[in-house]
Amino acid sequence: MDPLQKGNNEEEDSQCAEEEEEVDPRIQGELEKLNQSTDDINRWESELEDCRQRFRAVLVEATVKLDEQVKRIGRAVDDSKPYWEARKVARQAQVEAQKATQEFQRAVEILRAAKETIALAEERLLEEDSRQFDSAWQEMLNHATQRVMEAEQARTRSEAEHKKTAANYNSCISHMRQLEKKLKRSINKSRPYFELKAKYYLQLEQLKRLVDERQAKLVVAKADYRAALCNLESISEEIHAQRRSLAMGTREQGVGAEGDGGNDDIANFKIESDGLSSDRAEGAEATLETGLNKLSLTVAQKEEGDSGDEQDPHYINPEISSPSAATAILLLNSV
Asked: Which of 9, 146, 201, 250 has the smallest C-beta neighbourhood within 10 Å, fewest atoms?
């Protein structure tokens, strides 16, 4: 088989195995979250844009209508502004005074309950003659007494705040009454303008609240979208890491690796000493020594016979016919 074709077949098999592999259930869950977040983002962006357009439209309408009222009423709008400002401040002072009154009433109730707890404990202690005033009763009474002291401090603070806000409210009301008497004519004339202004102000406040709510929901949806993406990325990296570890554990020969079996044998070959190999090595050394001796003797005879005309008929060239000499030369060259 062609190595390239074999490699392609292995890649196709691995791809088929990956397709047949069961999908991680976490992926489906994160994909559903991703789709839901995408739908939420699109919906909140659409509603946010609608609320903003409505807010801008109401703001433009309010500006136009109020300008028409100013032109129609005239100077009375500016003359009566101090009264309307004082009225606004008085309403704010009234809200603060009501809040302080509620805090004061709550502190009084807490103080009353703490005192009743101490009174009941003392009464039970006096009713039961056999009961000893032990450490448990002492700890309970100490705790109740501590609560009474804290409640008294809270009541004192709330009472002072209540008096302060009440005095501020009375002052604001008095100032507003004075301006009302002083600017009565201008107030009556400019009342349509300020009533229309208050109406648009409430409407714009409601739209502003809707815009803020849509904006907050859009931020949450985008955060959920980013979290789903991060989770999918983490799951993908985990799956790829597992596949790489499995591939490294069961990797086969790649393309063109069929003829490299001899290299593995050479790399994994280890020399082991045994008796047979030692005997062969000693025989090789003896053969090498005999060949060297014969070669030296032959060279000496050749030098002595070079002076005569005839060569010894029994002379044999060791370089041609002596296997021992040839073996010796090869071994020397290899060394």
From this structure: 250
